[in-house]
Amino acid sequence: MSAASRSSAAERAGRVKQLALEAGFDLSGIARADAPPDLSFFAAWVARGHAGEMGYLSGQLEKRARLAAAFPWARSLVCVGLQYDTPHPYSGDAPAGRGWISRYAWGDDYHDVMQAMLERLRERLRAELGPFEARSYVDTGPIAEKAWAAAAGLGALGKNTCLLNPDHGSWIFLGELVTDLDLPGDTPRADMCGSCTACLDACPTRAFPTPYVLDATRCISYLTIELKGAIPDPLREGLGRHVFGCDICQDVCPWNRRRRHRGGPQFEPRPGAESPDLAELASLDAEAFAARFRASPLRRAKRRGLLRNVAVAIGNAGTASERALLEQLQRDSDPLVAEHARWALLRLDARLSARAGSS
After folding, report:
1. DSSP string covering 113-156, please?
2. Which of 34, 108, 139, 349 is catalytic?
3. What predicted TM-score, i.e. pTM, was given to this entire model?
4. Which residues of the chain are modeled with pLDDT < 50?
5. In the annotation, is 247 catalytic?
6. Residue closest to 175 by CA, chosen among 152, 145, 155, 153
7. Given the DSSP bridges, would you call strands 76-83 and 27-32 parallel, antiparallel or unpaired?
8. At the N or C end, where does the chain have fewer CB atoms within 10 A?
9. Which pLDDT tens digit goes with each residue over 232-267?
10. 100 strand-pairing partners
């Protein structure tokens, strides 16, 4: 390629990234369609059982490891990031005895928000560049988003496996346009963790067997969202008061303590989303659950999953006044909810007894 051609391609790439920022994204970068180095560990990670029941990961090994398997026409990816942090307390600062919903799920469903933004970006690009092949994804499809975002220079993978950006921390939603545009890729960032192990040390369920490796089967987010059956007994106490997802490894990250930026109003917490009342959640019937979490990521857990988690949270963090809630939940028609409520009653009684003995 001549110097003039390289210059032209670089200018084109710069314009693509600028249009992504004008579309409302906070970060934009470009990765070539060649598999980034981080993807080389994916198959071994699945083989070790770290993906758990997430069949959409283990069932797409070839497609996720090699983009050409799913998109033979792909030449580059336009990777974008959107800040979602809002100026509210972190999980460690929330009121005692309340539940915790992961920050990403407080507002509107990010899939819908980001997908609409990507579609607008694609149309803007076509208006300027002419027709081209493209597919847009937001945490969907055979795309290992963090690996591609790192390859595009949006950030570096942290020891907690989240993508870290020096300005935005890790409170970033990711999306991408897979395209047939021949665009030069950006330079990946260097490691940002150094000797820090704050995230590894803070994890209550010890979900990181080694730095930069997550065993999802021990992760609170997996246990409260992805896992559809019973939560393993040895891990229940570690869930604390988490009812949907977990922010601990991000809350303690030094890069997230700066909080220079905030997400848009669509990510502000809906009523009752920030440190929710466990008693209120425990009383939701099917109709109330559907109404409360319409267009919210919490729909993924379904009522049975959420009440399973709420029962465990009450056992771990509730008070004597909430014992009647557990007695009610153990009579729930769903056996999954009932079994976790029975465990929670034993856990709550043991906590109350230990507290009485020490007073």
Report:
1. HHHHHHHHHHHHHHHHH----EEEESS-SS--HHHHHHHTTS-E
2. 139
3. 0.91
4. 1-4
5. no
6. 145
7. antiparallel
8. C
9. 999 999 999 999 999 999 999 999 988 888 899 999
10. 242
